[in-house]
Every structure is written in C-alpha cells, then in structure tokens.
Amino acid sequence: MSPRLCAVIVTYGQRYTLLNQVIQRLDDARVTSIVVVFNGNHAPEHISLRSTVVPVLLPINLGSAGGYLAGIEAALLLDATHFLLLDDDNLPEPTCVDRLFQAHAKLGGGSLLALQAFRPSQPWQRVVVREGVLPVGRPNSYGWFHFANERHLLRRQLGAGEAGCDVDRVPENACPRIDVAAYGGLFLRREALQLSERPDPRYFCYYDDFDFTDRLVHRGMTIHLCADAVIDDIETSWHAPNERVHPTFSPHTEEERIYLDLRNAFIFYRSRITNRPLYWLNAVGFWLGIAYLALFRSTHIGTTKRRLTLIRRAVRFGSRGEFAPSDD
C-alpha cells in the first residue's frame, strides 16, 4: 500500500498570504490531504481552499497547543498513513517531503520513528546540525539557561551573531537523534499519534511542542532531525533577530510572548530536575544573564523595569508548575 500523507497546518491572525504559499507548495508535493486549523480567524474570501483541504474552525485562538490538538484529532479521521505538522509560515522546500520519506525508509521505516525537518531559522536546530548537540531539553535547565549550552549559544546571546550553517551540503550530522521536536516540520506515522498523547492546551503556546514530543518519546517514539529535508520559515521568529536590543527587553516584543515562553520553560523543565546543585548553579547563571541583558542589551528604562517584573512573575509561577496568566 502506498503511503498517504496528511499535512496539518495551524494558522491564526491575518496570515492568509503565508498560509496560501504553504498550501500551494504542498499541492506540488506528495500530499493527499491538508487539514487547516483556523484559530479564530476563518475568512474564506482570503484563502485558496482546494478539494484536498479540510478546514477545522475554532471560534477563538486556542494557541498552538489547542490548534494542533484539534488538527491532530481531525487528521486521524482521514485515511492517511503519515502526517506532517506545519506552522502557517513553514514553507517546505520542493524536495522536502520526498527527502523525509527517503530518510524515514533509510532509518528503518518503523511505526514509531519520527523525523524533524530542518528549519535553518531555528538556533537550536542549527546547533544540532552543525555540532551534533541538542541544546534544548537538557535536564536541570533553569528556565532558558543551562551552562552546558553557553559554548554553543553565547555569541548570539551577547548580540554578536553566531556561526552560520551551510544547508547546501549534507552536514556531518545529517540525521542525528533528538529527544524533543517542534511542531513545525514534525513528520510521523499514524501509529505514533495513536499512542493517545496530545498537546496540553494549558501551555497555550511555547514549549507545548517539546512537552508533547517528550511524552511521545517516553511512550517509545524516536525522533531524528533530517538535515537535508529543509523548511524555510517565511516569517522571522521574535526570538531570531540579531540586534543590539535583546528581544526580551525590546519594546517591539509582546509581553505576553515573553511571559508564556519563560513560564512554560520552567513548567516543562520541572520534571527534568535530577541534580539540585547543578539546577541552582544554572539559576545563578540565568539571573546573571538577565542582569547583563537588562544593563547592556536594553534601551528604555521603563520597558526594562516592566520586563524584569514580568520575568520574576513568570519564574515564580512556572517554577511552581502553575499555568497562571501574566497579570492578575
């Protein structure tokens, strides 16, 4: 029986131009159906819906967690053997889908084998491909910080940019195994989604994908990052700009993004604390890093004060495992 691939795309806001580009690219690939989850933003007059598209309409924005939860449930009702999860700005290169199938077969084609397509815009994925090291999901991380990651990420954190990653050649770490994955570019078989693990809607967004894939791995799934199956992110992430002002202290960054990202990091890493002395050592590094960013990579004193208050709140609730909002 030939494989049947279903793509699951989650979209929100006024992002129809991005969505249409992704749908068009998938129409040219080996995709038999496309589930599009509209997170409170259904506007059919702006969307080129084709016969292969199955729309899922949510009345409000439930975040990436709620969106992918609804999308996965809808996709499992279709006659598909394989699934590719995508954000609405994830544009697979023309060869991406074929290379995912080829890599899956080369690695044995197991029912619980998953692949993460390579997104060069993601700093952690560049580190994996360039150095063979996974800098996310490390036990005993304190929020965003782990000392073991500094040699891989320090240049970028200091605002000096980072070494590039040549995606025009097959790197040494062409298909390394990883412990967690992002939604965008996650390629997996039906059997993996039938393990009954689902995205946790309490996260809303940020780290919900790591939590979801971490639980799948604990149920027996394995994940490899496939370096030659490339997805281009059409829109730049708020994490990504290499500017003097750090995104955490930039007035252009939405405060809700910062809060959810940090709160959820603490919630995710709570179950990965195995060494208390190392955890508290990383805590010292975290707060020293925040102090450096506040002093040297911020501009407006009022914004800096607000962000420090926001960070303290995110740390307080996240370290308790509480999904509390950013304000009372």
Automatic annotation (TrEMBL):
GO molecular function, one term: transferase activity
Keywords: Membrane, Transferase, Transmembrane, Transmembrane helix
Keyword Transmembrane: yes
Transmembrane parts of this sequence: 278-296
InterPro entries: Nucleotide-diphossugar_trans (IPR029044)
Name this protein carries in UniProt: Glycosyltransferase family 2 protein
Lineage: Bacteria, Pseudomonadati, Pseudomonadota, Betaproteobacteria, Candidatus Accumulibacter
